[in-house]
Amino acid sequence: MLSRTASALFWTGRYIERADFVSRLIDATIRLAALPSSYGGDVAAWSGALAAAGARDSFKATHPTLSEEAALQFLSLDPNNPSSMRSCIERARTNARAVRTAMTAEGWEAINGAWLDMQRFGTALDSRPTLTRLLDSVKAAALSFDGATHRTMLRDEAYWFLRMGATIERADNTARLLDVKYHLLLPRDEPVGGSLDYFQWTTILRTVSALTAYRHVYRDNVKPWLVADLLILNERMPRSLAACAGDMVRYLDLLGTMTGRRGPAHRQAVAMATTFGKARIETIFSSGLHQAILGFLSENNRLGVLISEQYLF
């Protein structure tokens, strides 16, 4: 497979995953913003959403003041924001179009249909019902694309590059969300386990569609250390950091077997997965959750660079 084909597939997977995450982030933040300001609602919730999407600095560069309307527009349909849902779907479609022969007709139709639907919304939100339809459309598009590729694509290099892109993006999104909650949103005078803590951790679970999973696994009230355990160490949770690291090892193993090429990217993924296998949530909290997540983000970014150097250039 040509490196440019692998790169287009990898980034198609990343952009679709990012669009899905932003749609869920907006949905959950709307719920949090509706609460009284003493519970983390109002503008503070949108500051956290922008940070979780990695778009706070770019937002500040173009918007002198923060408001719900401006944040919603920036994260949803702003063509100048590379992390907006519109930009992500457009870039995913551009990458997929360049490698249509490496995908099945069903996979291409799913992503092309997502872009056609996105164009109908234009570049400006006109009402809250429009936003609801937009969020539902993006979530459905991501599920449709995942389903189409899973059910129709050969398990070969093309499929594994798609999955690697989605997985490395998913890990980055989960880590950023956890870090923003713990390090930026929780006031210093609010006790862990307080009412504000409950609403914000529940928002995290809603953002990654893990509230039902949490109840099934722990059968307990929402507690920060259990939420962190689910989203960091529980390998049964698809969006957890440990699950993503394990998936990356598996995909690189399969890719290495098919291509006969192994290298630094594989060793990096194995090292990350091994670290999670030995970790305990009590140790992570005692040594600092913020520091642990920053460390993971750095290692995950390094893995992305190594994959690019090994396969995509």
Give an overview in words.
- The chain is mostly helical.
- Helix content is 75%, strand content 0%.
- The chain contains 15 helices and no strands.
- 45% of the residues are buried.
Task: Provide a compact summary of the structure.
With 313 residues, the chain is mainly alpha-helical. The protein is built from 15 helices and no strands.
The number of distinct helices, counting runs of at least 4 residues, comes to 15
H/E element sequence: HHHHHHHHHHHHHHH
- Work out the strand percent: under 5%
Low-confidence stretches are 184-188
Q: What structural category characterises the helix and strand content?
A: mainly alpha
- Mean pLDDT figure: 89
Principal-axes shape call: globular
The count of DSSP E runs of length 2 or more, i.e. the number of strands, is 0
Q: What is the radius of gyration?
A: 19 Å
Helix content: over 70%
Largest sheet: none
Q: What is the terminal separation in angstroms?
A: 12 Å
Name the features.
313 residues; single chain; 15 helices
Helix-strand blueprint:
Blueprint lengths: L2 H31 L9 H10 L3 H7 L5 H9 L8 H14 L6 H16 L7 H25 L4 H29 L9 H13 L3 H8 L5 H9 L8 H19 L4 H15 L2 H7 L1 H24 L1
Helix pairs in contact: 1-2, 1-4, 1-5, 1-7, 1-8, 1-9, 2-4, 2-8, 5-6, 6-7, 8-12, 8-15, 12-13, 13-15
